[in-house]
Amino acid sequence: MTDTVEDRIARVRRVVDAARIVATDPSLIDPIAASTGLSREGVELGLRDHLETNPSDEELLLLVQRAVPAAHVHVILSANVFTAPLRAIAYATASSPSVSVQTSSREPHFANALLRAIADPAIFAADRDYPRTLSSGEVHVYGRSATIDAVEKLAQAGLVIRKHGPGFGVACVLPADDLARASVGLASDIVPFDQRGCVSPRIVFVVGDSDRVNAFADLLAAALDRANDLIPRGALSEDEKTDAVRYVETTRFAGRVSVGASYAVGVSTSIMIPPSGRHAHVVRIPSLTEITHLLAPVAHLVTAVCPNEREIASFFPASVRLSAFGMMQRPPLDGPVDLRRI
Amino acid sequence: MSGERKLERSEALHARARAFVDAFEKSAPSPEPLDALACEIARFQADFVPGFARLVKARGLDPATWARADEIPAVPTDAFKHARVSAFSESETPTTFRTSGTTIGARGEHPFRTLATYDRGALAFGRRSLTHGPGTFSRAVVLGPSPKELPDSSLTHMIDLFAHELTSNFTAKTTYFISDGVIDLETLDEITARALVAAEGPFLVLGTSFAMVHFLDALGEAQFRLPPKSRVMQTGGFKGKSREVDSKKLRRDLSRAFCIAEADIIAEYGMTELSSQFYEQTSAGETGAGHALHGAAHGIYAEPPWARVTPVDPDTLLPVSEGEVGIARIVDLANVDSAVVVLAADRVRRRAGGFELLGRAAGSPPRGCSITIEEMMDDGHG
After folding, report:
1. Would an 8 Å CB–CB cutoff place A166 in contact with chain B?
2. pLDDT tens for residues B169-179?
3. CATH classification of the domain holding A9
């Protein structure tokens, strides 16, 4: 029997419908907050504003077109933001009616709730040994580079591995941009998931002189400070705390930094990638053309860029997601978040 | 303040730092408290190193009030990648050592106006930690590139210095055994065989841990019997350079391969951002007084009197309680023209006779899929 585009879209819709139910389950908030380190408000924000529960027909069609039909897909959810299982499972079901899911041991709550709500025996939880039983099909692995490498090494011949690794987002503030609006929009891109998403912005290029750049950094710091009143930052891990202190001290030496209880915004003329946890690094550039050489060493890690302007798009590969300020963490459900390797 | 006055102050501070080395070599007490000179150097750096001046200002500190080294803000090693850490301009610093680089491409740079203090300190503490006495090594075997191949590496510079100064028989051709990443086992075999026949004095083998691993891999089950009393100095980690090997196993394998005692395999800890080095003292102390560490355990590194390593809380940057693990905050009086206090990324713990090096924090697996700082770092004693 042929698996038509309509069949595949219908399967994805059922997954999205299930996610809509899960998103309104208040019993999930505390367990997810505990496992992710996010504040309760941060979890609520993720479920309310960053779960793709209303995709358009065009988006679903594109999602299905981007998915390669397969006999079976095994999904490995190793390191993700907590809402990511929806997109990962949706993308897998766009490929195949038969999907096994290895949830993250550290954040299993959302994925397990989603699988329960999907209630389809062909879409089921499986453990790490499950791929050994497969001789064909695909493995979609979402995780850190080391995890991806390990999966690749252990995978049986005949399995196609689709890798979704770590990355980060980049924002650009153009000469014509209104600094206040851009800073508020960018703060709302930094806050969700406390900046641990692979499209979370970490670097901001600001075109202009040092006064303009410093003014933007101060506005962004103020916006992050205000945002914390509504969505308090969650707990940082010990590593994140250590990296944050080093980042602040390094930026004090190399440029300037505004530090608050829940954020840091650094400024310099060189690229620094701050740690996640609501830290942004603002880089002063005289013109957009500087981006190419400044970003060159990390260009392969860039997954998303804002704003969606043609003059910016020309500096990045077609695989990066372009969006408006404030929309970086709301990519349409038209494929994996990270389009670099599909 | 004029450039002449800056140079004059720098020269005077270098001389005071070298006086620590002179005293050490004579097994005499240090000429002044480390804290006093550290604060003087830090005041000089607050005047002439723009980044340090910014750091001091941002933290609301007044250098004039400093009396103890722990009041001086530490410069993170990352700063060497993103700003110039020097009191002097490029044209005034003929030597720049560079770190090996990271995933994000940034290489740390440590410029030097003069290497006089660096060389004096490195040689004095290296001699004390590695040798049996003056001129006891007949030759050096360097498992690493020559300064010609890697001119901006502080490690290569230091090893070359040792190869020249701690041996009686230096020629580049019979010292450097790695070129373009290839180990010349044939020549090494020839030299060690000849040395045994001629009853040559002991060898000093110098190299990075990853070069040693490559050497052992190339060697297989074979052995290179070194002359008696030979020693091995190994330094640095493995990350991304070779298969990782437990330090105990590496020592055991090297001991077997070179037919020497494990106590004669001595680890060094250093970094491009510093001018001083730290050594295990498993075989040290045969040449002078004041070294009660002879036979100390592997994994414990001693500082020279002109440096001090303090574990600090990674969050507050304040010293941790005795015996607790913290991030290494290193006072290095030989860093006169750059950063007298450096904040490393490695974790350490004070132990009797020195500090234990615990490497980067193992940490919990990172949350989310955003790239982590750890994933972007791969650096060291460049």
Report:
1. yes
2. 777 777 888 88
3. 3.40.605.10
Terminal alpha carbon distance of chain A: 26
Q: What is the CA radius of gyration of chain A?
A: 20
Residues A268 and A300 in one domain: yes
Backbone phi, then psi, for A321, in 5-degree steps?
-85, 130
B14-68: pLDDT as tens digits: 999 999 999 999 999 999 999 999 999 999 999 999 999 999 999 999 999 999 9
Would you state the structure tokens that stand for residue B311, as one six-digit string? Answer: 């574990």
Residue B82 to residue A144, Cβ atoms within 8 A? no
Note whether residue A334 is domain-resident. Answer: no
Q: Which of A164, A196, A211 is the last residue of a domain?
A: A164
Interface contacts A/B by beta carbons within 8 Å: 150
Q: Which regions of A134-211 does DSSP assign to beta strands (E)? A: 138-142, 160-164, 168-173, 201-207
Instruction: Supply A196's token pair.
Output: 């641990």
Q: Are A190 and A218 in a shared domain? A: yes
Which of A144, A253, A338, A341 should one mutate to test binding to chain B, selecting the residue with the greatest count of B CBs within 10 A?
A253
Portion 252-311 of A in contact with B at CB < 8 A: 252-257, 268, 270-273, 275-276, 296-298, 301
Q: Tell me, yes or no, whether A113 and A259 share the same domain.
A: no
Residues in chain B: 382
Domain boundary among A123, A149, A164: A164
Does A198 reach chain B within 8 Å, measured CB to CB?
A: yes
Is A96 inside a domain boundary?
A: yes
The answer, for B60 touching chain A at a CB cutoff of 8 Å, is no
Q: Same domain for A300 and A222?
A: yes
The pLDDT, as a whole number, for residue B291 is: 44
Is A339 within the bounds of a domain?
Answer: no
Residues A196 and A317 in one domain: yes
Question: Is 50 exceeded by the pLDDT of residue B289?
Answer: no
Averaged pLDDT for residues B100-115: 84
Q: CA-nearest residue of chain B to A168?
A: B370
Q: Residue A93: give the domain boundaries.
A: 5-164
Taking 90 as the threshold, does the pLDDT of residue B219 lie above it?
Answer: no
Residue A327 domain flag:
no
**Interface TM-score (ipTM) > 0.95:** no
If one compares A166 and A251, the residue with the highest pLDDT of the two is: A251
Per-residue CA distances from A279 to A36, A181, A294 (Å): 18, 19, 19
* Residue A281 · residue A251 · CB < 8 Å: yes
* B373 in contact with chain A, both atoms CB, cutoff 8 A: yes
Which tens digits make up the pLDDT trace of A196-234? 999 999 999 999 999 999 999 999 999 999 999 999 999
**Residues 21-60 of chain A whose Cβ lies under 8 A from any Cβ of chain B:** 36-37
